[in-house]
Each structure stands twice: as C-alpha cells, then as structure tokens.
What we know:
With 443 residues, the protein is of the alpha+beta class. It has a single domain (5-54, 114-278, 321-441), classed as Outer membrane efflux proteins (OEP) (Up-down Bundle). Helix content is 65%, strand content 15%. The strands form three sheets. A four-stranded antiparallel sheet has the order 2-3-6-7, with no helix packed on it. Strands 1-4 form a two-stranded parallel ribbon. α2 crosses α5 and α5 packs antiparallel against α10.
Amino acid sequence: MLASVSAWAQETGSIALDYRAAEHRLLERSDALAASDANVQSKEAQAGATRSLGRPEVDFEAQLLDYQKTLYLPLGSLAPVAEAFGIRDPLRFRRRETAVRPIVTATLPLYTGGLIAGTKAGARAQLDQARAEQRGAADKARLQLVQAYYGQQLAEQALGVRRDVLAGLDRHLADALKLEREQFISKAQRLQAQVARDDAAREFERAVADLATANAVLAGLLRAPEGVRPITPLFVLPQRLESLENYKAAALSAHPELERLRALEAQAQAGVTIERSKQRPTVAGFGQYNFDRRDSLLTDPDWTVGISLRYKIASGMGRNQAVEAARQTVRQADAGLREAGVQIEIGVAKAWNDAEAARSRFLLLDSAIESARENLRLQRLSYREQQATSLDVIDAELGMGRVRVQRAQAAYDYVLALAQLLELSGQIEQMADYAARADRVMP
Length: 443
C-alpha cells in the first residue's frame, strides 16, 4: 500500500504520454471522430454531385416491342367501284411485328424557377454543417481528454496525499502505543490514534480505486489497453487570462455550434427557394433521335428537337403553406442561433470566472501548505513532550492532507475551467500551448 505512485504506474506497463502526444493519439484513434470524418466526406461527395446540375441530361433507351397496328383507309368516291369487286369501305390493314427501338433523348433545363440553385445551396449548407459538427466533435473530444488526462493526475495527487497521511498516522500510532505502554497517555488517546489511522487506511484504499478508475477512463479514451501514464503535470498560469471580452468575441466568431446553426439557417433558406420553385414554370430544351427507323412505328419521328414548358396548375399539397412552413423553419433557425450565442456568452463568462477563482485559490494555498506543515511539525514535537494531545496531532495530520488535496483540486479546477473556456471560444486546440508556458505545476 505504501508503494510510490510512479512505481505503481511502471508495474502496470502503462505508456508515458505528454498532453500533446495524448491529444495526437486521440485524434488518430477516436471512432467518434472517424464517424464525423466520414460524414464530411459524404457531404463533400453530395455537394460535388450537385455541381453538374443544369447540364444536359442524356438518356439511352432500348425497347423490344411485340405490337399490332390496325389501319383504316376510307375509299371515298371509289367506294362504289370497290364494292363491285367485293371490297369493303373503308379498307382495313392489320400489321403485327416485333421491333427494337433504340432511342437517345437529351434534355437541357433552361429555367427551373430556382430549384437547381436551391438544391446546390442546400448541399453546400449541409457540407458546412458536417464540417462544423466535425470540428465540434473534435473540440468535445479534446475537452473530454483534458478531463480524463488531468483527472488521472488529480487522482495520483490524491493517492500520494492519502499515502503520506496514512504513513504519518502509522508513525503517530506507533508513538501512541509506546507512550501507552509507558503510561504517559491514556488508552482513550491511543484509541483516537487507532481510529484515525484506520480511517486513513480506508481513504487510501478509496484513492487507489479512484486512480484505477481514472486510468481505465483515460486508457479507454486513448485506445490504450495497457494504460496511460500522464507526464504533463497539473498547472496554473500565475498571470491573469486575457480579457473576458476577447474570449467572448472569439466564441461568437468561431464556436462550432454557431457555425452549425448558421449552416442550418442556410439550409432553411435553400428550402424556401426550393418550395418557391414549385410555384413557377419550368422550361427545358430537348432532342430525341431514333437509331432504327426501319422498324419504327408509323407515329414515331426519326428525330425531334423542341422546347417544353411545364407548369403545375393544381397540386395535392398546398404550395403556399409549404412555402410558409419553410419560412418558419428559417425563423426557427435564426432564433436558435441567437439563443445559442447568448448561452455561449454565459458559458464563456462562467468558465473565465471559474478559472480566475481557481487560480486565486491555488496561489493562496501556497502559504496555507507552509502553515499546515509547520503546525504538524510543532504538534508532533509537543505530543512527544506531552504538551499536546493525540487529537491535536491527528487534526494537524489531517489538516495537512486536506490542504494538499485542496491545492491539487484547485489546479485541476483551473485546468478544467481553462479547457472549457478554450472549447467555448473555439481555441481548445491551443491547450497544449497553455500547458507548455505554465511555470506553476503540481509536482
């Protein structure tokens, strides 16, 4: 139980990674990011497919026909003569044949009422949405990495503190047993030491379990079954962060969620264009050529060119209501975009304030640790001289551990708040740079 944290990590065979290397591994191996990449590629292909809209469409059609055709030919003034020869009026001809009809048809849209433009705009907006979602997924994965990576660091710090507290209370219990045998203290004081030591042992066991859980989380996130040993320590920047307004401005211009909502708004606008096109006529040029004229029907032309105009007079669906529905979708997207901007500004302000508060707590706890360490030393000396009770030593030992844990927690709170601030302002890819320039780290 008293083995050091570094020895424990080495025994597990875990791989040592600094934060930048861990981030690189995450971006390479995350299945969620692979899925978002595939979505972007899908939308890129879809947008590419719409670029050819408006070009001529050429169809080849081959028909195998088994047909029968009956023709009637009126004889007119020749009817009396024909009747003398037993010929009925009108003459009837019946033809039954099997024929092959190879036909090529070309169609060129000349005017679609905005359908093609709306379809292209919608495809581009879907691509923009996919790219925003891809970036958002990457940013959320980075934030999750910060929580897991530095969460394991916090668990290691807590384990080290619980180990030291347990060792200190072991020493105190040994002293109490000696003093009890020499009848310098009562059994009640020795029992106080025993109870405190047992509590510390349970806290240590819980810290071991917490560290194992944190390691499992980070190992799973980085697809490293052998485990990961973080080597970039918890840190706190001694100087204040940039102004809150700078982070807000960055968030409103670069946050992936706002980009996603802008893309949705563009899709809604494209939907309005498409619905309006259904109220307008369409004009197209066309041409058709028959490659086998010998077997063609009497009504089939050899070739045809022309212009067609098509306008739907009545529809089973209310076209005006469809346009209005599309407009309301635009309003919905616009309102959602404004609301998201407000919520992101609130989130940025909270994260900025949390980071500054954690930084202040961390710096103030420096002097608290020195005071707690000196108090513990004096209480131990006073106890040996019978100037302090067992409870005084226990309180001093626990107080020292509490302050150390609070300092590690303050560093973790700072790192997490900073990561949330950077994620909200679209800058979380700079997290490794912030860690590199920190000069206040947890050992």
